[in-house]
Amino acid sequence: MNLELMLPLCIYLVLVLGVGFWASRHRTGGNFMQEYFIGNRSMGGLVLAMTLVATYTSASSFIGGPGAAYKVGLGWVLLAMIQLPTVWLTLGVLGKKFAIIARRVNAVTINDMLWARYQSRAVVVLGSVTIILAFIATMVVQFIGGARLLETATGLSYQQGLFLFASCVLLYTVIGGFRAVVMTDALQGIVMLIGTGALLAGILIAGDGLPNLVHQLKEIDPKLVSPQGAGDMLTQPFMLSFWVLVCIGVVGLPHSALRCFGYRDSKALHRGILIGTIVCALLMFGMHLAGALGRAILPGMDSPDKIMPSLMMEVLPPWLAGVFLAAPMAAIMSTIDSQLIQASATLVKDLYLNYLNPRQEKLEVRVPRLSLLCTLILGTLVLLAALQPPEMIIWLNLLAFGGLQAVFLWPLVLGLYWSRANGPGALASMVCGILCYGTLSQWGIKVAGLHAIVPSLALGLAAFVLVSLLTPAPDQRVRRLFDQN
Fold it and tell me: Which positions, given as ranges, span the membrane (predicted)?
């Protein structure tokens, strides 16, 4: 075990745990669910920006994305920059209107908003089941990424790294709730920025500058410096699919959309859009460029998912590598905690309180205990599932993200901006979207070479519009609620 690496990393993990305990001791009181699941809507602009970026930036972005850039080359760096407007899109499309309506209906979860808009139990149940299943899959990916990071960089076994990483994340999330999640996200966003910059500087120094690194890539394979990339995988249908999957479709990710519930005021929203877009651009460019240039530093990597920790070990002194090992750890932890707290909210608020506890008995005692217990149980199940990891985790992560988008994108967006949208239309869109996505993904069917998400979203949109127009319009009370600014 490399103690020079472990010591600064352990200090970072202790700091994160300290933030979680601080959050648990500084709750503002009042309604438990408002506090535990959305932090009493108190985020400022900087925290909003950092928590949204950190939530979106995951193991796929910091481990899988650079791994793909390592294999494909500089063309993948250009492709990755498609993600630059994700914060602007999420907060710009959903932000203000989402927050106003969420306060009117006292919404704590995404499914609270769906119920207020569509008044359909089927929509809520389908949305809840999708969130839980997809989040379990994506959290498995994050746990695998954290464990591989520790395995590669510190000499711990995969299982030892997994248990160390998982224990830390579960502890501060269970104890601190949403407030701990967003505060640690802000810390982790800053760490990611510093770590990305340090690693990129180390690579440029070790490779004698950018021109020399590009020249070495060209000697390995000229396609590594071409827009099409090695293997000619960056075709037009692939790029269109990627643009939909990791840019436009991100608006439909529930754990990102939920951040629109928690900011304090309009000033915080506007600052969050500006800061978040800048931070997202720096992180995406830096991480993927490091992965692509890393091919020149370490040309013989057998597993692309190990390129980031391997580069840290190669180009930075051991103690400094230990400090900046926290950057990809932060990316992974910030996604897990967000999904874990929302999956727990879905189980407790959307399913248990609405359908399994009709008498609403002793909620002041039962809800806090159930929330903590559900968070712990879900995290433990994900930990057990991560014991047998697959290769190239970026694809598993994108598969789960696509499923969430196929279900939630149109019900969220059209529910806010189309007054004729109704429950049958939303349900038809969700069912058609997920069935199409699941069928095309399972059988590897590519319509015109496109990723399954593109035809799935197109079919979901068509089903939503058609069924909404053929069925009765929503109640006037609902329309007035969502039409008011």
Answer: 6-24, 45-63, 75-94, 123-150, 162-182, 189-207, 240-261, 273-298, 318-336, 370-387, 393-418, 425-445, 451-470
